[in-house]
Amino acid sequence: MRLSSPPPELWTLLWIVLQFDAMGCIQSIRYKPKSFRDSIIVLELNTSIDSNPTSIDEASSVVLRYRTPHFRANARILVPPVAAKETWTIGWIQACNHMEFYNTYGDKGMSSWELPDLRDGKIQAISDSDGVNYPWYGNTTETCTVVGPTKKDSRFTVSMNDNFYPSVTWGVPVSDSNVPQLSSIRRDQSFTTWLVAINQATSETLVLQTIRWRMRLHIQVDPEKPLGKRAALKEPVAQEQPQVLGKNEPIPPNATVKPNANDAQVLMWRPKNGDPVVVIPPKY
């Protein structure tokens, strides 16, 4: 006697029943995803800028140093089983969209760190990679790689942080004199940070989340005062918190390739009277 196959509805019911554990609770009901694009899930995303104000260090008689609060981002990711033999890297890519960084020296003029192509509008953004692991911001906590095929869910966290800790000379940077003349520091930089998955073989890129953030500061300096009492933070005491965009933005081409911002920046001296002078040329 030949037995007929159970109808599809019965198989579905049986599959659901098998998802119950001994306590009678459903473990999971998941349809097989069509592709990696459909399957990757951002379980949790947290981003913030620390609430502490920028700190100022006057320990050196040559330079003023300051340290800004940290921007931080971390995401918990779930990747269901990957059927294909493919490798995906998930992590953070960051680019600078805008930079103003001016150090004023009384009536002498000002020095400024500049990104010429960004300043002149030739590019929308410039990579803020570590300069080694393009296009990634870094490759320690910042990225994770999934190599298929896999039989189980992959769960992991990718995190990054960023802040500024520069040195600014007390004296005019094009002078041999170290006489303190620094009177003001102003900085205003904007960044876009993307949580991204990239297929290592095909370079297919999936933007999972987009974050915008900004760091501003104004330090007033009285060069006539003794070392240790010259500088004061005027604004802001607390930074604006990052914004997670409801709609992801595409990544501009220059955000993923050389040069990165550190290698492309140039230090200019712009005197009140006279022509600008390149103090430190770009590395790239």
Automatic annotation (TrEMBL):
InterPro entries reported in the protein's UniProt record: FAM78 (IPR029638)
Keyword Cell membrane found: no
Keywords: Signal
Top-rank lineage group of the source organism: Eukaryota
Membrane-spanning ranges: none
Signal peptide: 1-28
Segments of this protein annotated with the region Disordered: 236-259
UniProt name for this protein: (Atlantic silverside) hypothetical protein
Source organism of this protein record: Menidia menidia
